[in-house]
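Q: What would this chain look like folded?
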Amino acid sequence: MANTVTLLCCVVLAAVVAYAQRRNQTGASIQYERMGGDVTMQCGSLDSDASVTWKVNGTDVKARHREEGSRLILMEVDLSNNGLYSCFQNPNGERRDQINLRIGTSPREPTVTCRSNTYPKGFYCSWHLQHPTSIPTDFDVTVLHNQESLEVTRDVVHKNRCHVQFPEVFSSYPYRVNVTAVNALGKASTAITFEEFNIVKPDPPERVVATPIPSNVRRLEVTWNSPSTWPDVEIFPLKYFLRYRPLIRDQWQHVELSDSTAHTITDAYAGKEYIIQVATKDMEIGTWSDWSVAVHATPWMEEPKQIPSTTEQELLLETTPSPAPPSAEPHRAGVPVGRASSSLHLLSPLLWSSCLLQGALTLALM
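A: My prediction, written as structure tokens:
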């Protein structure tokens, strides 16, 4: 009964608003007409056989029409017929009336969805028309729970959204939401029924960060925050669903986590950029949130070693002192034979001749 009374009040209010809008600031009345039909406009209170001239937006009427005394009849109107129509009484051309013509359609059943992202505080419902009406359309919303009407608060930012507080938690009674679209040409309603646990859906996790781990070429440390709109994570804990993949592949890898806001990826491809997202849901009821904003990260990569250039190598060779030649001193005790032999090979031919002559004289004296 309360629902019926509320609906009747809405219809009356819509009629009052429509009547109040019949004239705009210029003094013109507003006339709403259905698209595709014929439209008749009457020039004020003039007699039906009065002679008048019609203008639209200050120019002659070029659309398909006919004039019958003080009336202007437009045929098969569409949005191009919108405009400010003025009528002037002949022969002195006095303006007698102005009509602001608006062409549109009556609303069809709106699409309605409800969701609780602040469980257990409350839920919100949103609605929209799949087919625009082209004329102002208002919406009336009623919510029933256990045969009682709940208070509905319209959103101050989203015009097609309202908020409702849960009257109790873990209720076994279903909720019924009815949204009625109303305009000057008609009305249409949509009603949905749901149970509390079916509409619980948190917002996505926030501040997702992926950080490379030093000296680990296959690991990424991922952290995130619970959605700030979720009232109490301690009493109503959340679980999380992490997905990640390298940009070079289309297949996601998934990890489900219970009551944790961090995870270390250990199987990343070294040097490959990754895309990472996180979703969440209540531990017991509801559905998964949408995915968080995607973040990109690349595992830690070892810095390449510096290799001297050709010019640097040449400079190094030029500035390094050359090794000293083997000593030409006579063989001393303690010096390896090999070294002495090598030194003898380096003696000049003249020195060899002197040595041989000295040896021959020594033998002769003996």
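Helices lie at 2-20, 310-319, 337-345, 349-365.
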